[in-house]
Design brief:
The complex is a heterodimer of chains A (504) and B (554). Chain A is an alpha+beta fold. Chain A contains 17 helices and 16 strands. Chain A is 44% helix and 14% strand. Classes of the chains: A alpha+beta (504), B alpha/beta (554).
Chain lengths: 504, 554
């Protein structure tokens, strides 16, 4: 066996190869190393190495490997060599390997590797691969209208789901293996002529900027490559919907798919894209616009309502109509905590119920949320621990945060809510104003791959026709791509027969 | 990257930055004590706006000279010029910070000391000011439109409070002399002096050929706003009262009502928008301070600029505090000096520990300063206030409604009853002190609806002191209805046969009964107007009490 620069070349002697493999795979009980004698006279020593569950049964005739082994029993050793050389059985995804690193990479990716005595190359044969859930229904981004398909844990399935929607050779899928030990397959999917070249370079550069032992989910990749890692705001958009990913690719963005993760990363991520739902583009523009406005109101409520409530009842009571204020005061009569402590306690109780609901499976989780909310809320009011108004404030805040389509984005505002709560509670409306000022200042300084986070609310040139505003424009008016798409490919919609139709 | 910004701001960002940075300082500072009001003020403002528009043309030509001052005028002169502008930035920021501290402390009543408020505001404004003009551009772009729209909306809502007679008073009584026009005009020019900092940043503005138009349009927008406010203020307050108002813009919405009665008062929201604009202005001064230090190769101004601003804002020695000295500095030193300097130049051609410090200061603020917030159930909400003279002393009677009954939340056997505590004292301050010593609940005058003045107070002529006292209470709205009565304390303690307190009863009478419509009632704003205009009271409706019956005689 030759060693060139630590790369071990495959030997013609199959025993030598077997020895080396067994040595590397000591105590790897899940890896099967099967010796066999094939050929019409059973004189050719062969070796099949595979991971037990990842490779289909060799004896099954309908599997590629089964067919191959069955075929090798009927042909001469010379013909076997020819087969290996030219893949004359026509098995899909067969690749010749020349060194042992390639062998182990192929093996650990879930393929079978076939060695033949007297031949200094091995053959990687794709098989069932590692077990995965396959295509499942979307859980986090449910829509009333649109595809029900969601990304799975397998990166290959995920890229094919995008390819299924964008059947264009200009859709490129570039692969990276990240993680010294996990060798996680990461795919970057983009439309070649829509995405900015500098942007692609920057993404590739950042993926190579670090060395890590393992990447187990796209979330790890996200945190390692984002611009401002201290910011609570996500700078990549995540989605479990292939149609959403395809939509963003058409906008000139790139999608990162990470093996073992059903969440695709869409980059660059900007504020408004987190507030969009994929069905915004499937519904009529009037309703979609209304829902978008509603989401922004929900965002404001989820962030500011507790703080504003405290600012008003602790400092600026004159804002409220007298009857309402007197009701508030009467409702708080006998409550032992200050209004700040009362609100914080109830908010934390809600967070607990929410967290518990997520951990408890299926319908029980939903029941937990409803029962927990109702019982804890009403019991607390009955026991005079909190006032009913505060239960309402917390409930509206929670509803607001649940109406934000993107969970990570909503979480950032959930955190921010406490900041505003204390500012409003201790400094009144002045605190709220300073909080808003700080938030706007922070958001104005955020960039996602050079694109201002507040796009499209801030822009260098006109963004007319992109439709990327709070109010969704009618489809026929959405003729341009957003400013981060390549300038030469800005037009996405052209009217061709409009004039003729009018004449008719 | 091509699609990202190339270290420049857009024209729209420049426009919105100018608008948001100038709105609050202009409308807060220009109209105090009738400074630029009246016909002369209007003419002066119009003339000043025209002059500033011409000045913009000159300003645009200075962009290259101020892009690198040391290169244009040599190291020494360049740095001296930079220092001149830097002092202006520091003093300007200190002045606005002081103003902000006072407005928040007095008008929003947070219960926190002015110095602490200034510190919080400065920390908030300082964050990120040295991180380039793009960040401020984006901030301006995102919030400029909202603030402008909100201020415009608030002014439109205030229009409904204006009175034609009040406006006529301004026309007949205000001065229209050349001196007044010149003085007002120069005040407006001084208020726009911040534009003089623009040449330092103009090299960072995209599409340079449109910059003149953009700046002019921003000045035009602000000019419209100023003139609208100059017309509105006398129409709402009356000409006489404006002489005594230092910040007449603040109580502008104290008597306005929102359609649908969603909110009782929204002047606090109005102040919120003004505060945001003030924070942005202070941040802009700090940003330009950093920019000037950087452009004149004077090192870094990361910390010391903020320290100087804070010191300037909080150090007040007698009459020479920043609030008094900055306007004089502006008038006699900065504006003339800036023009001379600009003409000469025209001719010539991260850090983690800082964030921790900020967080520690804010935490210390909460720990050390305590908080002024009082829970709603621990407050007393008088709906009616009676003011009278008894045994030669002032007597205030607070009409407190029965809380469970008023809110419909009374339980069986629970009957708190209406209360009307009455306190006497030589001065109102003494009455407040006695109240604090004798009552467990905090006195919240924010929901006062009815003011009853006793005959002995009116006859003795000491009602003026009552009005002065009420004027100092920012929580009291100016839409409070004012009545006269033989005995104010008796009237405030009165309850209807249905056990309804005087405040609730009169409100119902005025607002639900077409014959007792608010049109015939007299509000506190009208009382102020007559007081400042003629030194007298308007004809007040009289309350007549016959046992458990009450009648209002308009």
């Amino acid at each position: 066996m030759n060693e060139n620069d630590n790369i071990v070349i495959i030997s013609k002697d199959i025993q030598e190869n077997e020895h080396y493999i067994r040595e590397r795979l000591t105590d790897c009980a899940d890896v099967q190393i099967r010796r066999m004698r094939l050929g019409d006279e059973r004189k050719v020593d062969c070796l099949m190495v595979y991971i037990e569950v990842a490779t289909s049964n060799m004896m099954l005739e309908d599997s590629a490997i089964g067919k191959m082994v069955g075929h090798f029993w009927e042909i001469s050793p010379g013909e076997m060599q020819e087969f290996v050389e030219y893949n004359s059985l026509g098995i899909a995804d067969v690749k010749k390997l020349t060194d042992m690193e390639q062998v182990f990479a192929g093996l650990l990716a879930g393929n079978a590797v076939f060695f033949m005595d007297g031949f200094d190359q091995a053959m990687k044969i794709s098989s069932a691969g590692y077990p995965s859930m396959g295509v499942t229904e979307v859980e986090m981004e449910k829509v009333l209208r649109g595809s029900r398909e969601g990304f799975s844990d397998s990166v290959k399935i995920n890229s094919s789901l995008i390819r299924k929607r964008l059947r264009d050779t200009r859709l490129k899928v570039v692969e990276f293996y990240i993680g010294e030990r996990s060798h996680t397959l990461v795919q970057m999917v983009y439309m070649e002529d829509l995405v900015q070249e500098e942007f692609l370079e920057q993404v590739k550069e950042r993926l190579g900027d670090f060395r890590i032992d393992g990447i187990l989910d796209s979330g790890m990749l996200e945190q390692l490559t984002e611009d401002s890692w201290l910011s609570p705001f996500p700078q990549y958009q995540t989605t479990e919907r292939p149609d959403r990913a395809a939509q963003e690719i058409l906008n000139g963005k790139a999608v990162l798919l990470c093996d073992n993760s059903p969440s695709a990363l869409i980059l660059p991520g900007v504020f408004h894209s987190f507030m969009e739902s994929s069905e915004d583009w499937y519904n009529r523009f009037e309703m979609a616009s209304f829902l978008r406005i509603l989401r922004y109101v929900a965002l404001a409520a989820a962030t500011l309502l507790p703080g504003l409530y405290l600012a008003v009842i602790r400092f600026h009571t004159q804002i409220l109509p007298t009857n309402m204020l007197l009701s508030f005061a009467q409702a708080r009569e006998g409550v032992p905590f200050s209004s700040i402590a009362e609100l914080v306690l109830l908010e934390l109780s809600f967070e607990l119920i929410r967290e518990a609901g997520v951990r408890i499976p299926g319908a029980l989780g939903n029941a937990m949320g409803i029962v927990g909310g109702l019982i804890v809320g009403s019991a607390a009011v009955e026991a005079n621990l909190v006032s009913p108004i505060v239960v309402m404030v917390v409930a509206i805040t929670a509803l607001g945060s649940l109406a934000i389509p993107n969970e990570e984005f909503a979480s950032a505002f959930r955190m921010l809510k406490y900041f505003f709560l204390f500012l409003g509670g201790y400094l009144g409306i002045f605190g709220i104003v300073t909080g808003v000022y700080l938030t706007v200042s922070h958001l104005a300084g955020l960039l996602s791959f050079g694109v201002p986070y507040l796009t499209p609310f801030v822009k260098q040139s006109t963004d007319n026709g992109t439709g990327s505003k709070i109010v969704r424009v009618p489809f026929k008016k959405r003729w341009r791509r957003p400013s981060y798409a390549r300038q030469s490919e800005q037009v996405r919609l052209q009217k061709i027969r409009n004039k003729n139709r009018k004449e008719r | 990257m091509k699609f990202a910004e190339n270290n420049r701001i857009s024209q729209r960002q420049l426009y919105r930055q100018i608008v948001i940075a100038f709105i609050a300082p202009l409308i807060l500072c220009l109209f105090g004590n009738r400074k630029t009001l009246g016909l002369g003020g209007l003419a002066g403002t119009a003339a000043a706006l025209a002059a500033v528009l011409f000045y913009v043309i000159f300003l645009i030509r200075l962009r290259y000279a101020f892009a690198r001052p040391c290169k244009t005028a040599g190291v020494v002169w360049g740095r001296l010029a930079a220092l001149f502008f830097l002092i202006y930035c520091i003093l300007g920021a200190a002045f606005l910070l002081n103003l902000l501290g006072e407005i928040v402390a007095v008008s929003l009543g947070t219960g926190i000391g002015k110095k602490w408020l200034c510190l919080v505001a400065l920390l908030v404004c300082s964050l990120g000011t040295q991180k380039g003009i793009q960040r401020r551009g984006r901030m301006g772009e995102v919030s400029g439109g909202v603030v402008l729209a909100a201020v415009m909306l608030m002014l439109v809502l205030a229009v409904g409070q204006g009175k034609w007679e009040y406006f006529q008073e301004m026309v007949w009584n205000s001065s229209f002399s050349g001196r007044k026009i010149l003085e007002s005009g120069y005040d407006v020019i001084c208020a726009f002096s911040g534009l003089g900092l623009l040449p330092f940043a103009l090299d960072c503005v995209g599409s340079s050929k449109d910059t003149g138009k953009t700046v002019s349009f921003a000045i035009f927008t602000l000019g419209i706003l100023l003139i609208l406010t100059e017309l509105l203020l006398p129409s709402v307050f009356g000409w006489g009262r404006l002489k005594y108002e230092s910040f007449p813009i603040l109580p502008l919405l104290a008597g306005a009502e929102l359609p649908g009665n969603v909110l009782a008062r929204f002047d606090v929201l109005w102040m919120g928008f003004l505060l945001y604009s003030l924070l942005f202005s202070i941040g802009s001064f700090l940003h330009y301070g950093h920019l000037i230090v950087e452009k004149a190769d004077m090192g870094t101004g990361k910390l010391w600029i903020s320290i100087l601003v804070f010191a300037g804002a909080v150090s007040e020695t007698g009459r020479w505090g920043i609030r008094n000295s900055f306007p004089l500095y502006l008038k006699y030193i900065f504006v003339p000096g800036m023009l001379v300097l600009q003409i000469i130049f025209f001719m010539a051609g991260k850090k983690k520990w800082k964030k921790k410090l900020a967080a520690a200061c804010v935490s210390a603020l909460f720990l050390l300063a305590g908080c002024g917030g009082v829970e709603p159930e621990k407050r007393m909400y008088p709906l009616a206030l009676g003011a009278d003279i008894t045994e030669g002393r002032y007597q205030l009677t607070y009409g407190i409604p029965d809380l469970p009954k008023s809110t419909g939340q009374e339980k069986d056997g629970e009957d708190q009853g209406n209360a009307a505590p009455s306190i006497q004292g030589e001065t109102f301050r003494e009455i407040e002190n006695i109240y604090s010593r004798t009552q467990e609940k905090y006195l919240d005058m924010g929901h006062l609806e009815i003011l009853v003045l006793g005959e002995s107070l009116l006859d003795g002529g000491r009602w003026e002191q009552v009005l002065e006292y009420l004027k100092q209470e920012p929580a009291i709205g100016e839409n409070v209805y004012v009545f006269r009565c033989d005995a104010a304390s008796e009237a405030v303690a009165w309850v209807s046969p249905q056990d309804v307190s005087l405040g609730e009863y009169l409100l119902g009478l005025l607002e639900n009964n077409p014959n007792g419509s608010p049109g015939q009632a007299v509000t506190l704003r009208e009382v102020y107007h007559e007081f400042y205009e003629r030194g007298a009271l308007p004809e007040l409706p009289k309350l007549e009490i016959y046992g458990r019956e009450l009648e209002v005689k308009f």
